[in-house]
Amino acid sequence: MSDKATAETQEPALEAVTEQVDQALADQAVEGQAKAEKPRNLDLILDIPLKVTVELGRAKMIVNDLLALGQGSVIELNKLAGEPMEVLVNDKLVAKGEAVVVNEKFGVRLTDIISPMERIQQLK
Q1: Long-range Cβ contact pairs of 91-98 (< 8 A, separation 24 or more)
Q2: Within a 13 Å sphere around the CA of 71, how many CA atoms are in the beta-carbon half?
Q3: Cβ(93)–Cβ(57) below 8 Å
Q4: In the CATH scheme, what architecture does the domain 3-123 have?
Q5: Please, which residues have CB within 8 angstroms of residue 9's CB and are 6 or more apart in sequence?
Q6: Do 84 and 55 touch, CB atoms closer than 8 A?
Q7: pTM of this prediction?
Q8: Whole-angstrom Cα distance, residue 69 to residue 97?
Q9: Which of 29, 45, 66, 72 is the least buried, fewest Cβ under 10 Å from its Cβ?
């Protein structure tokens, strides 16, 4: 099976696991339990791959403008320069950050982590 097909079949399962982890974290926050140890069942899912996306910005275009793009074209995004980028895990916002260069590659320094309660509200 190809990597793409494997990723597509795993994606619904990964989303379900992510929701379960978020729910478990929210339950702990609601109960006021601040334990230093990992939940016992968390060890079972620690090696599951997740899709991490960093979004610089978005734009809407009509098909005619899209077809007119060429090398050197500039697409104006909806975010301002210097504005935090969004870090999404399985298409759910989990953090915001800023671009950095690490060993001549781009990276993201996290500046704000979304609380478990806020992540649960995104699922509704």
Answers
A1: 91/51, 91/53, 92/18, 92/22, 92/119, 92/122, 92/123, 93/119, 93/122, 94/119, 97/54
A2: 0
A3: no
A4: Roll (2.30)
A5: 1
A6: no
A7: 0.58
A8: 29
A9: 72
pLDDT at position 71 over 50: yes
CA distance 110 to 87: 8
DSSP calls for 79-124: S-TTPPEEEEETTEEEEEEEEEEETTEEEEEEEEEPPHHHHHHHH-
The tokens describing 108, both together, are 């993201």
| pLDDT confidence band for 119 (50 / 70 / 90) | confident
Rounded distance between C-alpha atoms, residue 24 and residue 3, angstroms: 30
Token duo for residue 110: 């996290």
Instruction: Report whether pLDDT(47) > 70.
Output: yes
- What pLDDT shows up at residue 77? 92
